[in-house]
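Workshop exercise sheet. Pairs work together: one partner reads the sequence aloud, the other fills in the structure field after running the prediction. Swap roles for the next sheet.
Pair: D.N. / O.F.
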Amino acid sequence: MAQRFQDAGSFANELKGGVVAIGNFDGVHRGHQAVLARATEISEAAGVSSSVLSFEPHPRTVFRPDQPVFRLTPAPMKAMILGQLGFDAIVEQPFDKAFSSQSAEDFVTGILCGRLGVHHVVTGYDFHFGKGREGNPDFLMKASVRHGFGVTLVEQYQDENAEVVSSSRIREALAKGDIAEANGLLGYRYAVSAKVLHGKKLGRTLGYPTANMALPPETGLEPGIYAVRFRRADGKIHDGVASFGRRPTVAEDGAALLLETFLFDFSGDLYGETCTVSFVSRLRGEEKFDGLDELVAQMKMDEAEARAALGSLQPLSPLDAAMTFGPAG
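Structure field:
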């Protein structure tokens, strides 16, 4: 995992003078990866550090607190992925209305030059910053000449159908349960991380003990049954089948969303462990059954279908290989 700094003021001195990629990078999708790859290329050629300057919480949440953003990659997940991509560090700069009101020049002199000591900045072609979005690509280029650092602007990234890859498209795909489309846009399998919680242990009595995780309420994934890869805190990986939803057969109406994963060929205690679930394919929607016997019969079919889907799984990319594949559990 890349080193995490909670603000630019705490940035390590030994990392200053490096290449900094700037952006929210929620999802770290294929479009983001084009920007990030350019940053690591420049840092390697120059023999300097590579870091990411991002913002927490997501700026949209600050300006629209009643509409929290469905984060594809919360800060810990983002830091893990950036580490896999070769970055040394991420600065999770606190973002609030006071920060957004500073001038573009103050952002350049105070953050980029003062606290990060940038050698080179890499960002997307449409990056804006500072009060009233006065800092545009032209402003950044001129500021780089004044202050003596380099700038690279990366053009928008399009998929095989010449459509722009964006976090919004991925959220829309996940909301429809279209895991294949979301994973294709991400360049790796969509994943969530959370602590394993104690549940009612009903699954154990049915022969299907599950690792239960509570995801943020704004999670926009379509409820249903999914074939998944489950990574433990120690890096060991297991295949499994997961239910994300409100458990209509056994829970009361209005129950909170819960992710319940049955790990194949596993016995052990996972409680309190922070684990990661990578979604491979969607098997079906959430259903309410007439009784537990009907539910168990369907779970057996779900298990068989998930085992088949996972049996010949191949990585989508080197990043996906790092995230979704690993030593056998």
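Discussion prompt: The first strand starts at residue 3 and ends at 5. What would you look at next?
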